[in-house]
Write a structure and sequence with these properties.
single chain; 143 residues; alpha+beta; two-stranded antiparallel ribbon; 45% helix; elongated; CBS domain; CBS_dom_sf; Inosine-5-monophosphate dehydrogenase; CBS_dom; Diverse_CBS-Domain
Length: 143
């Protein structure tokens, strides 16, 4: 399975935020949309970073409530790892695990075309793992 399959099932819409918005704006956007990360895009639509719940939690832990007035650009992760539609499920799991992040923008030809979360990946991987488990159990028990 590839990222293209995941996007075909879940959709490819991505919620973005501008770097000059405040963390307070971003928090409300995350809450309103029920999501865990925002892709930060400049005025031309290029990825400038990603802002996750973890980034916001760190900002609040270090700065308290004053962090809410800070710009998204000051707390986003600027070095964003991206993938492509043809990236396999196994590869994206490895990238997310190695990088210790839960959201990955999908890009094609420099354009943002989707966002995949670790939950999306696990949801699509789980049926395969369950089938493998059943096959192994049947093999061992001689069923």
């Amino acid at each position: 399975m590839t990222v293209a399959h995941i996007l075909a099932e879940k959709g490819s819409s991505v919620v973005t935020v501008q770097p000059e918005r405040t963390l307070d704006d971003a928090i409300h956007l995350l809450a309103d949309k029920g999501i865990g990360a925002l892709v930060v895009c400049d005025t031309e639509g290029h990825i400038a970073g990603i802002l996750s719940e973890r980034d916001i939690t760190r900002a609040l832990a270090h700065q308290g409530a004053t962090a809410l007035d800070a710009l998204v650009s000051s707390h986003m992760t600027a070095d964003v790892t991206t993938c492509r539609r043809e990236t396999t499920n196994e590869e994206i799991m490895r990238l997310m695990t190695d990088g210790r992040f839960r959201h990955m923008p999908v890009c094609e030809n420099g354009r943002l075309v989707g966002l995949v979360s670790i939950g999306d990946v696990v949801k699509r991987r789980l049926p395969t793992l369950q089938a493998e488990q059943r096959a192994m159990r049947d093999y061992i028990t001689g069923a």
